[in-house]
Design a protein that fits this description.
Low-confidence stretches of chain B: 319-323, 338-342
Strand content of chain A: 25-35%
Largest interface: A-B, 43 and 37 residues
Radius of gyration of chain A: 24 Å
Number of helices of chain B: 22
Mean pLDDT of chain A: 85
Strand content of chain B: under 5%
Structural class of chain B: mainly alpha
Shape of chain B: globular
Number of domains of chain B: 2
Low-confidence stretches of chain A: 295-323
Order of helices and strands of chain B: HHHHHHHHHHHHHHHHHHHHHH
Number of domains of chain A: 2
Number of strands of chain B: 0
Oligomer: heterodimer
Number of strands of chain A: 13
Largest sheet of chain B: none
Distance between the termini of chain B: 40 Å
Shape of chain A: elongated
Helix content of chain A: 25-40%
Structural class of chain A: alpha/beta
Strand order of the largest sheet of chain A: 5-6-7-3-8-9
Distance between the termini of chain A: 61 Å
Largest sheet of chain A: 6 strands, mixed
CATH topology of the largest domain in chain A: Rossmann fold
Chain lengths: ~325, ~550
Amino acid sequence: MNDAIDVAGLRKAYGKVVALDGFDLTVAVGEVHGFLGPNGAGKTTTIRILLGLLRSDGGTARLLGGDPWADATALHRRLAYVPGDVSLWPNFTGGEVIDLLGRLRGGIDPARRASLLERFELDPTVKARAYSKGNRQKVALIAALASDVELLLLDEPTAGLDPLMEAAFRRCIEEERQRGRTVLLSSHILSEVEALCDRVTIIRRGRAVETGSLADLRHLTRTSIEAELAGPPAGLDGIPGVRNLDVEGNRVRCQVDTDKLDGLLRVLTGIGVRTLVSQPPTLEELFLRHYSGGGPDGDLAGEGPADAPGDGTADAERDGVSA
Amino acid sequence: MTTLTGTGALTRLAFRRDRVMLVGWIYALTAFVAATVYGFKKLYATAVLRDAFATTVAHNPSLLSLYGPLFGRSLGSLTSWRDAAIGGVGFGLMSIFLVVRHTRADEESGRLELVGSTAVGRHAALVSGLLVASLASVAAGGLIAAAAIALGLPAAGTFAMAAAFTAGGLAFTGIAAVAAQVAQTGRSARGLAIGVLGAAYLLRAAGDSSGPGGPRWLTWLSPVGWNELDRAFGSVRWWVLALPLATAIATVTAGAVLAVRRDYDAGLLPQRPGPGAATAGLRSPLALAWRLHRPSLIAWIAGALIYGVVIGAAAKGIGGLLTSAEVRKVVANLGGQPGLAGSYRAALTNAFLAAIMSFAGLIAAGYAISAVLRLHTEESEQRADAVLATSTGRISWGLSHVLIAVGGTVAVLVTIGLGAGLGYAYRGGGGGAEVARLVGAGLAQAPAALVMAGIAAALFGLFPRASVAGSWSALGVAVLMLVLGAILRLSHWILDISPYQHLPKLPGSAVSAAPLIWLSVIALALGAMGLAGVRGRDIG
């Protein structure tokens, strides 16, 4: 069994609202897997099914080789969970919560607990009701990281952390990876995902719309092209993969699927190229496109706010040229 | 923008949120008084019957302690006597729940922070909570007056009775406002205010049951006692209404002043640091549950002890009784069975104590339900997730809270019995044997109280969304059946629904094990259903 998490065709509905609609997810042992998607896409539902808190309506889910519903207690000894919205018992101190959760999970490493308290600069003597959101998050993180487990399920764990603590978190996850632990990291912070994750899965409306390594995903993105040609542009319409074509005299602006780039360039060089600005694809653009509605091949891609960053860059560069 | 900006909008929001709850409370309070009028009208139709009844009441400390003195012999007097104290408690509870719900509880959940960041003044939330509770008291008082007049009671007396209810509700509205500033959680604010309400009830019980030369003035200290002191339907003392109204004004002012002096989400007590590590014992679901339940259980047991001592002492005061058939009848109506024990006097004392123990059973059920429903709080506040994501199974999680609810219920009942025995002994009414007898009588209530806990557990497991309203409604029905069942002469088919109907009237009557065993089996079955439900359903 090489996969820590293996989910196929997972379904879950709350009444008429479908949260998961045939969702697939595979996380290999020892991998840090990014789990992305817009709010309400089904990330938390997936994690709660993996924790055995919810029962799925269909499909299969395997966690560390076991059934997350039937073998919940046995599996929970081997994993730690950090919820997105950490709620603590108001009269407990942070230190008490860390110890309690660690012990309920089957044990806590005192040395590691002490070093994590220091790294996250958490005062464990403060009552939970007095903690800020970020500090509550730290309590849950320390409780999870101080436990000796194989799998970490982290649901937007850095949502309330300041940049320094975010950096401390990244170092901790890097260490976890080196120790061979598996991490499922749900996050909205793209730089965090880029820095930490081996592979990512993007979920949208309860389905996996993209999964793969970051390098794989970059191939699926589009490159923005702006060119001034020697003659009037003709025949650009029919080139596969070209979108948002905008012709102004001899100037051409468009976007092209990155794997179809050479087809476009061949036509352009045939006409003759005076200037060429090529804007490389960004992950942000990819994610935003998925978040806003269209996939890489979707028709909506050019219209929505998804392309706003690309357009903004193009505008800036055009301004630069005319200046 | 003033400190009251937005009060209107918040009040409308509160009415929208509470529309079902408000109708339920107002209906229950009105129905309670209307049913009393209706029942007494049938039970004591003639002046002769009412005269006999009034004479027995005047000389019976047990009835005095439960309901207070009777001023006059009319149907109105009887109604006001029977309902003043219990109705006062009902109005008090309604006010407390409404005020805390819209102030401290909302603040604790963070909803008020969201609302407070909009164009809403600093006092708006407090004032809208007070408005909702006050209007509820006014509406319930008005409907009670309308119903009583429709059933034939004279207008002036009815108005005095209803006005006392409303004014008492306003007083507890203010008291709840202060509690909501002092305490830091909704739960503790409710507990604090209900503690004041319970103390008020006991003060008037002690005052009313004391003989000539005794501390009768205690009743004057009690906001619940003021309800009877205006002597509705007798020679009305309107000025007594000034006491609850002055209390309301003073406490509301105090609440508003305190509200300005503290920070958002803070109580008046400063937050102190605690231990940086958990004690060695905090390592199991049961240890966690115990830690969560401990403060409220201690408070309940302290309250139970006071209740028991006061009632036990009052029971010993029973003397100078008239041996009339009417007393038998009334005591039987209370739930006792005079005549089974040796002397009549002892029988009456026993009947009183048995009635008190029935109330103790209801009080213990209140604890039991609130303890079981902590599971619901843990789940809805998402703290259950953190625990269930560890190697803690759902059954051990659920069972840990249920076990403490069961143990706590038994402890509350034993404490009431113990307190009653000690209070009785203190007034010279016997020693260890009496204490043991009363502890036994308290314990005999446990099966019924645990059935109520079982209902709460089953609802939590199977219908979590309905569990809070459903459990408390079940207790409300049991209370109404106990208080009104005999007056209304309800059919046994209906009364038998209540588990309390099947308990032996202890002390003073024979115990048969069968109903106790059956009730325990039912409680166990309900609990098992609840746990099975928890295991099979989605959490959160």
